[in-house]
Amino acid sequence: MATSGTANTGSGGGASLWSDKPGSGGSGIVIVRYPYSGPGGSPYDTWAGSAVFTDDANGDGVANGLAWILGAAGPSDHVVLPAPGTETGFLTLHFARVPDQGPAKLYVEYSNDLSTWSTPVEIPAGSDTVGGDIEVVVIPASPPGVPNDDVTVKIPTSHASGAGKLFGRLMATEN
Ligand SMILES: [Ca+2]
Predict the structure, then answer these.
(1) What is the Å distance from ligand 1's center to 100 Cα?
(2) I need a labelling partner for 13 at 20 to 30 A (CA). Which of 34, 44, 80, 158 fits?
């Protein structure tokens, strides 16, 4: 665990640049502020170049913006989709998430018939219960070795249909 660090807050929009310095004492929290509105733009813009957030550059069915949040290397990269799982009492979605979304937002929705979906609930930065009863567990990124957050979203099976069907999906917005 780094005890100190230096954030790149220069004008280049250095979303991926963060360097540790060997222990110079002090403790633990580094607050990094990126120049979202400066040259280089948001973390998404830095990743995407000219690829539009809502477009699907590689035609794999996952919009560029969502692919970025889920850790894709670039707009042409096929992202690893959330892995669904069942845990007693929950439908779970497990996925990687970039640690700095900038102004972008990630939401979860659920349905028991694939027709009517719940109101989107924003997935918070850290572990929390949101939308009344959706549990979010976040293991924060620890760059450079662990570049992305490890996120598990737990949707209670109380939202399932009488036949026991329950579906979850993610949605991203740029702002
Ligand atoms: Ca895509």
Answers:
(1) 20
(2) 80
Distance 23 CA to ligand 1 centre (A): 41
Residue 65 covered by a domain: no
Q: Tell me: the pLDDT tens digits for 31-87?
A: 444 444 445 589 999 999 999 999 999 999 999 999 999 999 999 999 988 999 999
103 Cα to the center of ligand 1, angstroms:
20
The CA 44 to ligand 1 mean position distance, Å, reads: 14
In a domain, 18, yes or no: yes
Range of the domain at 17: 1-41
